[in-house]
Amino acid sequence: MATPYIGASIKRKEDYRFLTGAGNYTDDVALPGQTHAHFVRSPHAHAKIKSIKKDKALKAPGVVAIFTGDDLAGAKVNGLPCGWLITDVNGQPMKEPPHPCLAQGKARYVGDHVAIVIAETYPQARDAAELVKVDYEELPAVVRAAEARKNGAPVVHDIAPDNTCYVWGLGDRAAVDKAFSGAAHVTTLEFLNNRLVPNAIEPRAANATYSRADDSYTLYVANQNPHVERLLMTAFVLGLPEHKVRVVAPDVGGGFGSKIYLYAEDVVCTWASKQINRPVKWTADRSESFVSDAHGRDHVTRAELALDREGRFLAMRVTTTANMGAYLSTFASCIPTILYATLLAGQYTTPVIYAEVTAVFTNTAPVDAYRGAGRPEATYVVERLVETAAREMKMSPAEIRRRNFIKTFPYQTPVALLYDTGNYEATLAEALKIADVAGFQGRRADAARRGKLRGLGYSCYIEACGIAPSNVAGALGARAGLFEAGEVRVHPTGKVTVFTGSHSHGQGHETTFGQVVADRLGIPMEDIDIVHGDTGKILFGMGTYGSRSIAVGGTAIVKAVDKIVAKGKKIAAHLMEAAEADIEFKDGAFVVRGTDKKKAFAEVSLAAYVPHNYPLDKLEPGLNENAFYDPANFTFPAGSHICEVEVDPDTGTVNIVNFTAVDDFGKIINPMIVEGQVHGGLTQGIGQALTESCHYDKESGQLVTGSYLDYCMPRADDVPTFKVGTKETPCTHNPLGVKGCGEAGAIGAPAAVMNALTDALGVRDIEMPATPQRIWRACQESKMKKAA
Amino acid sequence: MTVKVSLTVNGKPASAEVEERTLLVNFIRDSLRLTGTHVGCDTAQCGACTIHMNGRAVKSCNMLAMQAEGADLVTIEGIAKADGTLHPMQEAFRQHHGLQCGFCTPGMVMSAIDLVKNFPDPSEELIREQLDGNLCRCTGYHNIVKAIKAASQTMRS
Lengths: 788, 157
Description:
The complex is a heterodimer of chains A (788) and B (157). With 788 residues, chain A is an alpha+beta fold.
């Protein structure tokens, strides 16, 4: 009998500490001799820094030290690196301007870090920061992607006089142009994919300490990948020996991408902790998070779909300008390219696709991965085009999709990806059923009687999770590996500690990974602890982003467990005087096949650590294995979302009356956790569609939406109770058959909502976020059109 | 200028000398080292700092510590029984997966307990409306709403 863990909605191990206030987040860490830091930030979008006077601030109560860009330059502290090199259409490397940890000569966005003030208490640091006198000479600023390349636009970096980081292309342009020239129908859309602020509820934080005893550092930081943080910081920025730096990412209060990156604040606190020989703690307040966290999205796109008379897709052509912000954040360059254009095939057999992406610098905060990272933008392009084409050709949106679905696997897309498996018709059919699409016309008529407008919208998304393999990613410009590491340490009594390079910041790895190991070893989950987030404990790790944890991190653990079982068989064979080949491992015991002779898992582990009766001549004692896993391919979760909205044309308010998501995540370890991931993703996707927008003033470059009073986060009454379902086609190239589920909701939802809304309003397009004002205006315009 | 603030927290007397401008949430977190109460914003919008003061849910970032002089406070650390048994609201959050990263959770639970006190049998719609002062970025609220509904039943019986 197999242990019943995989596939069960086991309640989470981590919940007790979170529910009783016993979580340990970075800001909760208080170290002996603690000092507190506040950063002086540029109030201007673009300015020359003529001088910085800190003498008055240094005399303020409690001030310990103040450092500026000059201090860092003097100490040979490098700038922040970008982790992905994009090669442009002419074979030239992208422009990589220096990204100093404290501004050198110029500030390039509102919030750019100019100085650090360290004091005994946080209020003292903040007060003293007011006394740091920075003499700025304001310069004109450019904040919008569409304007960065115009003649006469302010130049953000001298090395990129046209503000262009790269112009990059993917696909067969000539074949696409040819297909368009012979098409029966062409659908064209132009739109913005609105800039978003990730807004994990725990603000970023760092607390660094230096030990003179052994010349080592420890950095506590709200981060999704502590080993990557350490590698980038030691090898590229501070030039420190890697083994002298420990990075701990304890409980982390949400990430959504924004805590992947190496940020200047982390580096400066670490460096300063040695200068003053005391721990330095910095925690962002929300206003700082808004101006200094890496943002997401911000694309301007023109997209065209060519179709034949029967609605079959012939070709797709996409031109996108992506806003990088003022500097290249850690993975900024690969988001609108490798993680965007490669997804433009969606779930369809479109034979030829060409995408051209221009990445530009502007005087705004850096833009990088935010939940979905390129894939929501791609899905928005594909699914808005497909739905619009269906309407133009008077086909049902379900039928046009079915007609173009990929049906045989593996499938090589024209934009580099090889889908291993999927069943798109199954997820769509299930979604149609759950959403009661058959009854929609009746509901629409009923709404009309009440003076309301109902609409229905679809989104059939594909996601590529767990970027891999490392050598292919390297050939595409990645400057890091994309494997994961795991270690399984069996203690003498048979209890198990598992160390994973994945990081949980809400995903529940302590539970999900525990279920995997419990099933594989046939022991109770209570006997297993999952440890993550500490370079001092874990052998290595690439961390958590891109929905990779279960597919990559989980597989590394499975491989290590399998090594434990293999060694256990050798030990058991010796103990039971049987041939190793006759030993099988079943339900937590090593059994001599065909006999009743067996040794429990704990008996074998005890023998490994008390090796009195043990083949010491052939086998090392101990039971501890690790594994690195580099996947053969991405995984390809996919699904169908159907959104039904009701609009009040008099007020422009929109109510999501029904949202159905049917996803194929391959094998599911914990359905409760997976559904929770879907709900959260959907809400962020609905937020993008209806409420959230990060807005910089065009003239001043000021961030206008810099607080929760201005940036509209979805609240409980903005979203519905979701209807979710799953279909399962197991991934073909990892042992668990898993695909990943973290980003699916955020990827699929925006297009579903906007397709529903445009259906309700009878308009071709409406800009995201579709606020009541925009909707009301659209209602008035269509009224006027009808009257005319 | 510093001022001595004395009050009751989770049934025990507590006091500390703080600057007059110290916010109640910083008094709780830094002076009393009760770090379960969190800070997620600086505009009293996110609700991560919600505690109970004299039996009412309040945002502890939105008042000075000295305004709580003599008050009876309960924080997330004081909700479970002494033997570790969770409060029905905490238990419902666990049963219904009403939390992910855990950062908004303490404030969410404190608000939810107050909600059920004021509305013993809340509808889903009312729960969503009443949760307006608490932001969660992970759960999409779906399971939080379910948890509060379930807890309201347990707390009634």
